[in-house]
Amino acid sequence: MVQKLFALSKVETKRLLWIMGLIFAIFLVFQYFELPYSTALPSFFSAKNLPVLGKSYLQNGDSLSNDSAHTATESTLERATNNTRTSNFVWEGKGGPNTSLGLEEDDKDSEESSYISLEKKNRTSISGDVEHIVDNKFEPVEARGPDQNWNIKFDTSYGNSSVDRIVKESDIVTSDHVGSSIAGFASSPPPTIPSINSSHFASPIVVDTSIITPTELVEKDTTTTLDKNEKSERLNSDLKQTEDASSIARVAEIIRKPKVWQKKPPIVVYPISKMNNMLLQSQASYYSVIPQWSAAVDHELKYVASQIENAPIVKNDPNLYAPLFRNVSMFKRSYELMEDILKVYVYKEGEKPILHTPLLEGIYASEGWFMKQLEASQKFVTKNPQKAHLFYLPFSSRLLKLTLYVPDSHSRRNLVGYLKNYLEMVAAKYPFWNRTEGADHFFAACHDWAPAETKQLMAKCIRALCNADVNEGFVFGKDVSLPETYVRSAENPLKDVGGKPPSKRPILAFFAGRMHGYLRPILLHYWENKDPDMKIFDKLPNTNNKRKKRKGIIKNYAQYMKNSKYCICARGYEVNSPRVVEAIFYECVPVIISDNFVPPFFDVLNWESFAVFVLEKDIPNLKNILVSIPEKRYRKMQMMVKKVQKHFLWNAKPLKYDIFHMILHSVWFNRIHRISPIN
Fold first, then answer.
1. Which of 13, 90, 211, 641 would bridge 171 by S-S if both were Cys, CB 3.0 to 4.6 A apart?
2. What is the mean pLDDT of the chain?
3. In the predicted model, is pLDDT for residue 476 greater than 80?
């Protein structure tokens, strides 16, 4: 053959080579289209170097066409449920945003409430298992790539709580085995991820984000080749045989409708013990601002600081339960001095509705109630700014969004511009902002966007924020964690307060809420319909059945909280959730699952005395964590919840030590050491 080839003329040789090249190209095309379904031309690629095609990855590194990806993804996830005992979610994304701004949790999510608040309007809903709020996706379109899809992986190791990992689709390059999975690929198991003991932390937990291979979810079958019809039948059969796939189907729904604004789990995790240390460090080395000129109020607060540091020991105060506080003696002295001395100047400038317009219902009601009660206060408000220790900026972060945000614009520029113009007007009319660069100014903002909108313009202000996230710029010793309170009735904010005694709480743990954020699908995957003691729902069962109502089988949201020992407070799009205060409202021990969330009044309250903190990575062990708490310890915590309740209640008129005074005290407490007087 070689001799005949050399005997050919150059023209014939070129023609023969061209024909061979064409044949080779045809085989490559055949390989490209047939490889996901079979093993055409296996000799060209070894099993260890097989390329993973496409941009959408399943658990085993599979790639699917756009038309079949949704069905196959859901089927694979459902089949994985049956083969996995305790799965660990591993999220992967490509080009996902890393910003402090996310979609607001408009219901956050007491879905059974009949109240339709203002924040539930002006939004667009997409039908499906998961409601997607789309009127305020935050990232500019030009900043997003077409491949910013979130997918979910399961680690099929049994009975562990290994750390979830974050990987990009571009990081996954090869699969180790060829099998008969949906797309023709199956990978080797990922490297072992060591578990992290969450009981003691001397430093933040850094989640390893090194490249890992996808987890193998289907049986390897290198000998059988299935054609498309056989595979379709197998998928249908697997789907029919899946009995408990409701939570996985919901996760698949999230995949099918990717949210480009979806936040990733935090890379650095600060457990509650670490945040305690950060608070102590901030108090030991206060961040002080040197004013442009001296003022009498600065020297007055220097005296106040010395009084608090040398506070007399408090014993058996009838109004304060000492174990709830970090230092009840210092808190009481500070509170007394606040009542005697504090003066706040409220800027009168600014047009409604963004300024001077309190919203008193819904999940953002905290900022509205505080605005209403402070502006009406004769004790704390002064008309003479020269006597003011604090200056209040009376804007509503919720109304700022409702009034100025352009739906589907994906831009906050006009919102930030409005605040900038307002501050420039205040600074031009008054000298007080420029004296301290805003260090003695404060505001209360509950909307999720508030940290991002104010982090530059009001960097030195005391920011009272519901979205109190350590990873999003919350500063201990300066900023305040504002309680997020879901007020259903402005006329009666205390309606239905209270709960049942511990002996009449048959439910171990309860959660109900929409699938906001990355965490809740994980919670439901592990615990929805998995354990009779764990009442974990997306939407609550229908309560229209009168017979079941009479038997007490079905309860509404408030009744579930009143009948539960522990109430799960899982983060949504952001770290904050109204469930934290709701649990206290209904005398249920809060279980906070939200890494890096600074709980309200963290500067004075000992949260670990009446709440349970569970790291996000420990969701698979949630029940074990709760049942390991002795009954005696639980009853003491539940009693503490009842004791701390009054500090989280809005009263029609402010009462001593209620939520209004607690917010104001936290601002006052941080102000005391903020400005160094000029001698």
1. 211
2. 74
3. yes
pLDDT digits (tens, 9 = 90+) for 235-263: 444 444 444 445 455 555 544 444 545 67
| Cis peptide bond upstream of 109, omega within 30 | yes
Spatial CA neighbour of 467 closest among 374, 578, 393: 578
In angstroms, the CA 362 to CA 447 distance is 11
Lookup: tokens for 450: 């508030």
Q: Order across the sheet with 344-346: list the strands.
A: 344-346, 390-392, 441-445, 462-465, 480-481
At the fourth CATH level, the homologous superfamily of domain 502-648 is: Glycogen Phosphorylase B; (3.40.50.2000)
Read off the tokens for 464.
């009272």
Domain boundaries, the chain: 2-34, 47-101+128-269, 272-489+654-671, 502-648
Q: Are 423 and 394 in contact (CB under 8 A)?
A: no
- In the predicted model, is pLDDT for residue 145 greater than 90? no
CB atoms within 10 A of CB 440: 26
Task: Name the pairing type of β-strands 174-175 and 50-51.
Answer: antiparallel
Residues 6 or more apart whose CB falls under 8 angstroms from that of 636 comprise: none
- Label each residue of 465-512 as H, E or C: ECCCEHHHCCCCCCCEECCCCCECCCCCCCCCCCCCCHHHCCEEEEEE
Q: Tokens 């203002």: give the residue.
A: 118
pLDDT of the residue at 555: 75
Are the beta carbons of 474 and 468 closer than 8 angstroms?
yes
**pLDDT above 90: residue 1:** no
Q: Which of 234, 267, 222 is nearest to 79 (CA)?
A: 234
Residue 528 contacts residue 247 (beta carbons within 8 Å) = yes
The model's pTM = 0.68
CA atoms of 343 and 440, how far apart (whole Å): 12
Q: Which residue has the higher pLDDT, 305 or 544?
A: 305
Residue 481 CA to residue 469 CA, distance in Å, equals 9
Contact 676, 293 (CB under 8 A): no
Tokens at 294, concatenated: 């001296």
